[in-house]
# Entry
Amino acid sequence: MSKSEQKLLDTTGRFTQVIKDGTKLGDIGWTDGRILLSNRRLILAGTDGKRTIQLSKIDTIEGRYDVNKAIAQVTDYVSIRVGRDVFLISTGEAEDFERILHKTILDGNILLIKHPAIEGGVVRDVSWKKARVKIGEGAVNLAVEDGSFVRIDIDDIGTVEQDERSVRSAERPVLEAEHTEEGTSVETYLSGNKKHCSVLGSVLKRGAERNASSIDLDKDEKEVLMALYSGVSSFEVPEFLDMDPDDVEEIYEELVELDVLQEVRIRREVALKPRGRNIASESMNSQ
# Structure
């Protein structure tokens, strides 16, 4: 190991390769061994030898990839895609291991940011700026070249979309993350090279997956959410929707129980949670 290479993790665990050169492997099982991570490479050392993965070659860091019962029996692992190969790694602390990988690959890199690209549902006329990324505990922190600072809390993310757009006269991958700032729904756009966007996307999507809308709401409940999402005060929703205040109060209570709203103050002041913003956005787009 050279002087510029620093060891970040040295532990025992399990690992296996499930896809090789684009082909799913058969008769796959876990190998016990040693897992070493530096700021440059990941080494998986077992009784059959060792495999070295350069961090610069990692394309994506993903979640579960259960291919058979033997793999599914291990509940805590991370899948890593390197070109046309996929490896599964279990250290017993998947979230911690995944966060170290994210930090090692992303920290200190320069991305482009447009913030807020959308605020309260309104498109803002802002330009792309350079920003230095740092993965924190439960957040993506971005120090922007103009001296401002943007923090995206993972648990506050409603949706994440990835697209190709023209950024500074070149086609680039763009991440669109919806979250809040001081109670207002905003969308932050982030762009960089394909690998950085892919890895950063996996960070942001963890929050979006936890807040995904899978709740069947009725028409009145959706209208309440859309009103709040559009910036209507929770006190003004009954008049805005021409609904009985007691009925709206009952809807608030139901949506708080469903983890869609959070109660700000006792009696009728509520604020949208990420899941609620997600449902409201989907409902508005479907109209």
